Amino acid sequence: MPAPFKLAPLPWDEDALAPTISAETIKFHYHKHHQTYLDTLNKLVDGSPYADLKLEKIVRKTQGASEAKDKLIFNNAAQVWNHDFYWRSLTPSRTEAGAALDSAITAAFGSKDELIAQLAEAGKTQFGSGWAWLVSKGGKLAVEKTANAETPMAKGVNCLLTVDVWEHAYYLDYQNARPKYLESVLGKILNWDFAAQNLTKEDNAVRAAAE
Ligand code: MN
Description:
Layout: H1 23-45, H2 55-62, H3 68-89, H4 98-109, H5 112-125, E1 130-137, E2 140-147, E3 158-164, H6 171-174, H7 178-188, H8 192-199, H9 202-210
Antiparallel strand pairs: 1-2, 1-3
Helix pairs in contact: 1-3, 2-3, 5-7
The protein binds manganese (II) ion.
């Protein structure tokens, strides 16, 4: 859908992830932070050639831009996409990776515990604001971290899961203890079913990036 963009609804009730993530955090994070990125993006693209493009395409076209306005558009567009992907990476329900994702995890990391340890390390060592990601490249899984609004999607990399490690994602619940937030999120509320669905979309992701 081209602009004006709208926030996708959260995939669960605002209190559904508590106590791992409180309703208060979700209220600020979704209704203030995510909404502000969206409102800013809509103002920036209004009347510009970007207004007719899909969100993903705007992110890819403005990735690495040198002009100030395009940098701003990238930051806000990527943050809209990253947050929507983050909400869908989380779930209060018990989910299973399933056979295809399980074997890809075993091939790349040896075990799910090792994958979770690597995601925790990526999130913990991302200096300042950013994101930790599980991605697939040619069917091979990898853990990545990105700074600020940067997203592997912008480079055509297929994303399976993400965790927001900006302070606003955890400060109300964990204060400065980012590792505790990561331990709880990674151990309790990751949506493995969403990751498994994304694993099947790699060809689409690569094709869209090439457009
Ligand atoms: Mn955030």
